[in-house]
Amino acid sequence: MAERKPQSPGQVLAFVIGATKAGTSWLFRYLEGHPDCHMRSVKELHYFDALDFGERAFHLHEMEQRLSELRDQLLVAPRDRLDLLQRKIADHQDLIALHRRAGEDVPAYLEYLNHGRRGQALIGDVTPAYSLLSAGRLAQMATLAPITRFVYVLRDPVSRLWSHLRMNAARRAGAPEDIPARTNRMFWRYGRGRFPGMHLRGDYRGALERLDRALDPTRLLVLFYEELFRQDTIDRLCAFLGIGPSPAAVHVPVHVGPAVEMTEEQRRHARQWLAPQYHYVQQSLGRVPEAWRANMAEVIR
Predict the structure, then answer these.
(1) What is the pTM of this model?
(2) Which CATH number characterizes residue 151's domain?
(3) Is 92 part of any domain?
(4) Is residue 150 within 8 Å of 215, Cβ to Cβ?
(5) Residue 51 resides in a domain
């Protein structure tokens, strides 16, 4: 069989930058398995946000914890998972070494992305926190390869917020039965202005305005989560990235959060809190998916 060729010549560096809880883990899995892509096995490299926001120590601690967990898994893993675990361990070790370098070292970052590459057209970094970066940093990132592409995925603001809350509640809960109560408490605290990071992760207007200032429009693809899990959307993504079309596991979920129902009272409040995001996306992109319209009907008159 002849070797597959990418649709566009040259090396492509792709940044998938969010939004949080909008399908980036699924996209990472898709790109990781695509024959035209070379992805290290670690999602969320946090290179530029750790550098710009002074969070290297925090991310190093998280990475070292994860490395320890992987080493523990290696001791009890079945034989058919050993190669994957060893690859993940090596990729975490290399990433930790990258983060331990003093100052900014973009050549070392690019070397990390390219390590092990065997002719694939695309390398990539899937880190939703990059949506918080300044326009200046995003513009600098756009110069790092002959072809750079940025992908930003939007999800219905109310649904995205509720999923984010459930994820964080699950991480902090002592037991699964504690998750609903913790989610509800966090919801009302969010409404009182707590969790600024969560507010920023759902600030589509801020992210899109920074991307607009930083990038040539041809370098950015904005997708909707509600349309992501369809082959026609993935074909459009592949064409944008300059890689060949490849079937996607559109029915295989990744990182599904715990099931906690949102009350109608909570939904009414969330719609009002997030009304500016609905307004901005509708006006700037000119359309939204049908799945957004039930919530929009309450905030756009």
Answers:
(1) 0.93
(2) 3.40.50.300
(3) no
(4) yes
(5) no
In-domain check, residue 98: no
What CA–CA distances, in Å, run from 166 to 62, 139, 157? 20, 33, 14
Q: Is residue 205 part of a domain?
A: yes
Pairing of the two strands 37-38 and 122-126: parallel
Residue 4 has pLDDT above 90, yes or no: no
Alpha-carbon span 209 to 218, nearest angstrom: 15
Do 211 and 197 touch, CB atoms closer than 8 A?
Answer: no
How far apart, in whole angstroms, are the C-alpha atoms of residue 40 and residue 295? 38
The model's pLDDT over 198-216, given as tens digits with 9 standing for 90+, comes to 999 999 999 999 999 999 9
Sheet with 220-224: strands ordered across: 37-38, 122-126, 12-16, 147-154, 220-224
Domain that holds residue 151: 12-40+115-296
Distances (CA, A) of 157 to 9, 95, 197: 37, 32, 15
Angle between the N-to-C axes of helices 56-76 and 82-100, in degrees from 0 to 180, rounded to the nearest 10: 160
- Of 44-48, 110-114, 165-169, 247-251, the range with the lowest mean pLDDT is 247-251
- When divided into structural domains, the chain yields a total of 1
Per the DSSP assignment, residues forming a β-bridge with 178 are none
Give whole-number Cα distances, 270 to 48, 199, 230, 273, 277, in Å.
Answer: 31, 12, 28, 5, 11
